Each structure stands twice: as C-alpha cells, then as structure tokens.
Amino acid sequence: MTQGSRGGPAAWRLVVAAWGGRFIERFLSTTLSSVLSPGNVPALAHGTRAEFVIFTETADLARLDAHPLMRRLGELVTVRTVCIDEVGGEGKYDRMTRVHRLGMQGAAEADIGLILLTPDAIWSDGTLAAVRRAAERGSRAVLMDGPRVVGPAFLADLEAYRDRATDVLAVPSRALMRLSALHIHPNEAAWSWHAPVIHDAPFQLHWPVPGEGMLTRAFCMHPLFVRPRREIGDFKGAIDNGLVERVVEDFSEIYYCRDSDEMAVVSIDELGFSSASIKRTDKRDRILRVAKWATATATAQNLHASLHPARRHFAEITERRWRTAERLSAAHIDAVLACRQLLILHRTLIASGLTSAAGLVAFALHQRGLTGRLGKPGPRTFLVPAEDAAASWLQTHSKSLLATERRGDLVRVLSNHVREGLLTAQQVRAEMPGIGIVTGDIAMDGGLIHVVDRVLA
Amino acid sequence: MAEAKRALEEYLTAHPSDADAWLALGLMAIRSGGLAAGLAALHRVVRLRPMAAEPYRELAAAYRIADDDREADCVRTAEALERDQTIGIAPVLDCLRRGATAEAIESGAEILRRHPSAIRVRYELAVAYQAHNDYDGVVANLGAVVTALPACAPACKALADFLWARDRLAELARSFSAVVLRSGTRSDGPSSLDEVERLYRSAIRHDPEWAEARTYYANVLRAAARLDAALIHYRAAAAQVPEDAVAQFNLAAASAALGDAQTAWNAARRATELRPDSGEAHELLARLACAEGQFTLALAHDSRALSCARFHTTEAFL
C-alpha cells in the first residue's frame, strides 16, 4: 500500500460533477484532457493513493466509459463514477453544492486531500504538482482562479497543444494566459479597474500590465484543494464562497496562488446574454459599487483574499512594472475596504437615529469625492455628533458646505471625527477632556462609535 | 358596445396577456371609430403573438382605412405567415415546451432542410439558441424573420437588442485584449450600429406604443451621445408607462443631463415613489437638490441612496 506524501494528505480524491451531453463533452475535451498532462494527475498521484470521482447521471455513463481518456485515467488512479439521478436541488447550482458535499464525505477521517475540479476548464501543465507541493508545506486550502474565456475560438486555438496520439492537452501556463487574454470573456473585461463599466458582482478586479499580463485581486476564488480536519457536511452555498472558512482554522493555512507560472486555469463559457449585469461607471462610482457589493456579500475570508494579488502573465515579468501594478491595486483595494467601513458606519448611524451625521457621510461619499481620500482601512474610532448638535451645525454651515469651491471643507471636518485604532470612551475622555460623550462604546464591524456633544469643526 | 368595451378593458387590466381579448378590443374600437385605440390594441396582440397572421391582417385593414403606408408591410407579413402555416412545426414546439433546446435545434434544422423559408421555425430556433447562449444562432435566425416579416415589431426589437448587446460585449472584450496584449487592435471589430438603429426605428414605426422598444432605442441614442433624440423616446416611454420607475428615472436622468431640472426633479421623485429603493434616483435627487441650494434635502436623498441595496440600478450597459 502506498503512503501519503510527507506532510501532505494520506490520499487524494479528485472530484468533478458533470451531467448532460454538452457538459460531458466539454469535460472530456477540456478538464479531463488537461488534468492528464504530465504535471497534473500523474505528478499528483505519483507514489500516493488517489481516486478520481465523477458525479454524473445514468444517461451519461456509457458516453463517459467509452472515451479513451477514461482508460488512460484508470491507469493512473482509481476511477469511480457516482450516479446522481436521485440528488435533487433547487436548480443546477444547488444540485452542484449537494454533489460537492457528497464528494467531501469521509475526507476528514481518512485525511484525504480533495481536489475540486470544474468540468469546463483548462488547467495548465504543472498546476496539480504545485498543489501537492503546497499541501506538503502544510497548507490546508489552495485558492486560485483564472480568467474566463469565450468558448469556440479559444478551444480552436487550444488544439495546437493537444497530443494527437493520446488526446492529452499539456498547456504551458504562459500559453494559456496568452490565449485567455486573446479570447477574454466580456464579463472578465468588465472587472478591469480601468474599464468604463463594472459588473454587478465584482468577484475579481484586474489591473492590466500591457504586453505582459494582468494583476488580479479576487474576493472569491476557486478552492482547488481543501484538506478538512472535520466533516463539513452542512456546508451551504457555492464552493467559492464559504467553504474555505469551514476547512481552515486560521487564514494562514490558506495558500493563495501568486503567479500563473505556478498554477493557472482558464474557465470556458459562452458569450452569454449577460450585458444587463454590466453598468457604466467611473472611478469614484467604482469604489463605491465594489464597496457596496463587499459590504453586502463578502465574507471575512473573501476580504482576506483581496489582499493577495496574483500575477497572470504570458511573458517574462518586468519586476518594476508588476510592483507598480501591485501598489496601485493595493491603493484601490484599500479605498474599497475603507469605503466599506464607512458604509457600515452609515448603516449603524441610521439605526441609531443619527441621521444628520449619516447624511453628511453619504453626501461626502457621493458628492465631495471622499472615496478618493480614504486612506488605509483598519480599526477606527468615530466620534459622531449627537443629532441635535449635528442638525444645528448643518443649519449654520449649509451654505459653505454647498459651495463647490470649498469642497475640501467637509472632508476636513469629517476627518476631525476619526481616530485611528479602537479607543474606548474612557480613553477618549482622557485624551480629549473638552468633549462630552453622550453615548459611548457603540460597536460596529471594524470600529467603535462614541456619540459626542458637538461638531469638531 | 360601450359597455362591452368597458368590460373588456376591465378584464384586460387583470389579464394583460390575453391576446384574444386584446384582438376583440382592437376590432371593437376600430368599428366604433376609435382607430388609434384600435391600432394600439392590435399592436399588443402582435407583441403577444408575433407569429400569428390574423393581427397583421387586421392591422392592414385598419391602416387601409387611415391611408397609412404601413399597410403594405402588414399585408406582406400576413401573407408570409399564412403561407408558412402549411409547414408543421409541432416537433420543435414540443421540444421547447419540454425544455429540450438541443433537440429543438436539431428538429428545427431538419424542417429547414425541407423548407428553407420556414419563418416560424426560424423564430423558435432563435428562442432555442438563446437558451444556448448562442448569439450567432439567435442573430442569424431573427435576421431571416425580420426580412420575411417587415411588420413584426417584436422580431425587429429582439434582433436590435441582441445585435447591440453583442457589439457592446465584443467591444469591451476587444478593448481589454488590446490593452493587455498591447496589440493596438482596440476598435477594429464590426459595428452594427446603423442596423440596430434601423431595426429599432422599424419596431417603433410598427408599434409606437411600445415603451420598452423606445427605451432601448433611446439607450442606443444616448450611448451615441445623441441625448436630444434619446430624450424624445424616454419622454414617450414615460408617458406610455407612467407607473414604471425605470421609465421615469430614464426621463429624469436625460432631462437633468440636458439642463431641464424641473422635469428631472418631477420624474426622479416619481421614480422614488414607485420604487423607493432606486438608489440612482435618490442620488440624482440629491444632486438636483444640491444645485438648488437645498442642503438638508440633498443629505436626506444621499443617505437614502447609500442605504439602497447594492445594485438597484437603471443604468444598464445596454
């Protein structure tokens, strides 16, 4: 009996779900062809127990079994097909989640490393070998993602990398990234920070590095590998949003792929009729929209993920240029996260009846360019004027606040009410003895609010 | 007659998708001298049953009374559809009813081999290709329908919608590729703008009461920086569907951009009354209030805008 690799899991289980003629065909010609390349399943399974579990419907079994690549797969790992005819679900995504839950069963007890594959993607040669290395270094999850491309033309270009004799696709990462840039899906292009539009769900954001590739920061990434310590049977939602928190004890156990040379994937899609999800935008509006999305949707792990840039490149890296892109993207993400904090503050103020102060925050964000001057995110203390104090101050200062030539005044006044770090009411009293605290220590996500008796103009 | 007409109108308020009732109302209105109301009702029938010959026949008769040159298009459309009735398309419809779109495409292709000009099959194939996210399939089949049925406003509008969306998406992707690959091919793609405009104009000509067609056409005009022309259609759409928050917001945004603050204010207020969670409408009201020196009001609307869920937007890329 073979043993698990040192530091890595005792065994590997590769899981994929595919059903219906179109998806089976896509799975065979893309995912399966590419994971059979030398640096993928053969390298992952070398000297280690591994099984490949395919969840499918009875009607698709014959087509799967007859394909020559399935025989090749069977020579490398144990292949198991599981019929999911009886697995219900409200729609295909819910069904997919149920199937993934089935695929994860027993993994914790047997110390199985799960490789979660999608049925319509191309994995660069060497990706699974890199996953194995990360697992052997102690990572409990490997998160990565890749650009989405429009199918037919991309697939035609990809054929250049198919071995005619074996049908295996061994695609070097840089070739894959170049093809993805050439056949990029419009939704992916809408995630570019410099595009004049934005997608409703900004899971990822891209900063092009012309001639070399693009830097990406993603909130949601695909968990290509998870190694759970305990069973995660009640996991809900899609695997790229909520699963990883259930697997790791702290975020340091997550390995975020930083460079496409190490791991790369491209998912294949149709052009689709999704243009209604793409809206016009500008820089200020983009920060606000991404922040709104992050406030409503992003988990703590999603926010952590956005701090890890990934280089997706098809050419040799010019380090200076990528560092510049990293700095720029970090500043943008900082603005988004700081804006998210103000949205949470605004929500808390409304709930506490502090409508004048809430209005000032909203006005500054919408009309005074506050999104562009937010600085780094972090724990903050907000000294918020009591409603009567704020309302009376507004009465006397509305004219000057409306004057566009004095647009900086409001931002300056607002910044007087913010202290870096978390200061209790007691600490504020000690530091600022002239200020009366009406209500202290109101907790909010990432901050602390004290209601004070005046406007700190 | 008047009582029956009232009863039908009341019925249609509750059952706006009943094509037979719209047809009855249209004929009743025309017979009692209400040509405009009759035409509007017949246009509704076409929207609900674009592949039925009868409403085009009735429209042709009505246009004849009015000496309107749209009669010729309606006659041609009705004749084409009457000829088409001899071609059986039940297998395709059956597949679509079962959601078996791949089978529908195969079945439709088989019918087209025998009857290359089968129009209703083309229309159903466009529906099937849409389910497959296949723009080319949709565009090719709808193109054939539009050519054969010049008075079919729904086909004209649908084709314009798809061409416009496809162009915009392709342009977005092309622009991204050009920057990343530094290939300098930023805008070398085909543009269907002239064709899109022609199709929307045709749809509006044959169904002038269709607010959605006017709105989409106005969006195209706005994107081409022809805001004055867009405003005409946004205004017409808002008048046609006064209870629609999106139509009111579009009117407000275009009016504000053209400096008509009063119309913008009224329409944006209406939009927020109809849809209190319209973030964009609140943001626009805040800007307008600000311009009028009404600071407290501006703060209130900005605050509402910020509280609205993340994307209650009417600023669709389309």
Describe this structure in words.
Chain A is an alpha/beta fold. In chain A, 41% of the residues lie in helices and 21% in strands. Chain A starts with 10 loop residues before the first strand and ends in a 5-residue tail after the last strand. Chain B has helices at residues 2-14, 19-31, 35-48, 53-66, 70-84, 90-97, 101-114, 119-131, 135-148, 153-181, 193-206, 211-223, 227-240, 245-257, 261-274, 279-291, 295-307. In chain B, helix 13 packs antiparallel against helix 14. Classes of the chains: A alpha/beta (457), B mainly alpha (318).
Give structural attributes:
heterodimer; A: about 450 residues; alpha/beta; seven-stranded mixed β-sheet; four-stranded mixed β-sheet; 17 helices; about 40% helix; B: about 325 residues; mainly alpha; disordered C terminus
Quick summary:
Chain A is of the alpha/beta class and 457 residues long. Chain A has 17 helices and 19 strands.
The SS-based structural class of chain B is: mainly alpha
SS field, number of helical segments of chain B: 17
What is the count of β-strands of chain B? Answer: 0
Average pLDDT reading of chain B: 91
End-to-end distance of chain B, in Å? 44 Å
Label the overall shape of chain B: globular
Distance between the termini of chain A: 74 Å
Strand order of the largest sheet of chain A: 3-2-1-4-11-6-12
What percentage of residues of chain A falls in helices of 4 or more residues?
40-55%
Give the amount of beta strand of chain A, in percent. Answer: 15-25%
| Largest inter-chain contact set | A-B, 59 and 44 residues
Please identify the oligomeric state: heterodimer
Net shape of chain A: elongated
| Alpha-carbon Rg of chain B, integer | 22 Å
How would a textbook summarize the main sheet of chain B?
A: none
Low-confidence stretches of chain B: 311-318
